[in-house]
Amino acid sequence: MVRGKTEMKRIENATSRQVTFSKRRNGLLKKAFELSVLCDAEVALIIFSPRGKLYEFSNFSMNKTIDRYQNRTKDLMSSNNTAVEDLQLEKELDSFTITKKLEHLEVSKRKLLGGGLDSCSIDELQQLERQLERSLTKIRSRKYQILKEEIMKLKEEEKLLLEENAALQVKVGRESSKKGETKQRSESKEQDIMDVETELFIGLPERRTTTNGFL
Q1: What's the pTM value of the predicted model, to 2 decimals?
Q2: Are 55 and 42 in contact (CB under 8 A)?
Q3: Secondary structure E strands in the chain
Q4: For 146-169, b where at least 16 C-beta lie within 10 A, e where not — what string?
Q5: 187 inside domain
Q6: CA dist., res. 145 & res. 164, Å (int)
């Protein structure tokens, strides 16, 4: 018979709760004993029943195991406190370093803009001058690069416009040629019509006479 999965919540029935406690307590004590024997581990187990009754197991002295646990907990807490203090100190140092860097950058910015130069020495002024020259060189280089790209772009656009213009001229020439041919054919037809009309007889028909001299 397959056992169903036990739902992890408080058992409301007191009798069932006591039976389950007894079974699980004995199983837990057995597992603690097996762990201490099989793995040579120092195990201390303390259980209080719902009525306050004590059950315990220890393969060494319970008091020594508890003392060892308390000492270990203190060491861990001390180590954690030290780690927290070190982390806090590191954050403060980082914050102080960042603040100093920002102040230095702000001073350098003011000097590069021409402010706060009264307290500068010759060496500092020469250094600022070199920095400005390097900045100007980079700015000019970037400006020329942008202008070069714009010129190349305009040349490409000019090339496309010339090609479109040439195509339009060819198209217009073809249309003009077609119109000329159409006009020429029309004039030729008109001339043919005029030629046909001039060949028609204009005037009275010829009179024919009989033997008597009359028609």
Answers
A1: 0.37
A2: no
A3: 44-48, 54-58
A4: eeeeeeeeeeeeeeeeeeeeeeee
A5: no
A6: 29
Per-residue pLDDT tens over the stretch 148-163: 999 999 999 999 999 9
Q: Using the 3D structure, point to which of 60, 75, 92 is the last residue of a domain.
A: 60
Residue 83 lies in a domain: yes
- pLDDT digits 0-9 by tens, 121-138: 888 888 888 888 888 888
Phi, psi (deg, nearest 5) at residue 51: -90, 5
Please, are residues 59 and 36 in contact by the beta-carbon 8 Å criterion?
yes
Residue finishing a domain among 87, 104, 119: 119
CB 55 within 8 A of CB 29: yes
Q: How far apart, in whole angstroms, are the C-alpha atoms of residue 196 and residue 202?
A: 13
Angle between helices 122-198 and 62-112 (to 10 degrees): 70
Question: Apex CA 126: angle with CA 121 and CA 127, to 5°?
Answer: 100
> Is residue 109 situated within a structural domain?
yes
Position 38 in a domain: yes
d(CA 156, CA 164): 12
- Which residue in this structure is represented by tokens 């130069």? 117
* Residue of 53, 37, 74, 33 whose CA lies nearest to 45: 33
In single-letter form, the type of residue at position 90 comes to E
